[in-house]
Design a protein that fits this description.
The protein contains two helices and 14 strands; from the N terminus they run ααββββββββββββββ. It is 12% helix and 39% strand. The longest helix is centred in the first third of the chain and has 18 residues. The chain has 199 residues and is mainly beta.
Length: 199
Amino acid sequence: MNKTIITLLLALVAMVGYSQELKLNEPTINDYIPLLNAKGYKAYSFDVSAIKGRNLTVNFREFVNGKEVEDYPQLLMPYTFESKGDKLIFGFLPSEKDSLAEFCFSLENTISFNSSLKLKPIYWESEDKYIYSYISKPFELTTPLEKEYFIPLVCYCSFWYDAEYKVTRCCGEDIIKPDLSSDILKYVPHYYILGITIH
């Protein structure tokens, strides 16, 4: 009797084991995102339906050693335009030059353009060479949608050299606070803030 029960239990275990198998799925568009990110493509999509029909300006701010560069010229969009869509995208794409970061701005049914940001090299002391190394991080979306108020959306920040570990790095918060109080910004020698101002 006991042998029969044990045999049945073993058979059930074997059946369960055989029912678990790997399957090849048809890839979806989301499966390509890690591949695109690895090649330097990164997109940030924002729901801007709350400001549809309002006027806005794209803003770029540059910071060096924690201080805003006051004489940095507007890259693009010195004029105001009306938002006619529900989605805004800031995206980054591979650049042919190490000293430039290529990005695109797209506001649904309104405007789309590409431009570049000038980058600054950092000295990798232990390797005795200069490198360009940056990463993008989104901002925490807590800024009120008030008139003439700058809303930061994406931070594009440089790595820094860590003398203790003899490496370059840019680790810290994954989401940046809009008041720039995030710890990571204390170490980043150069960064841009990309955002919008509502009018």
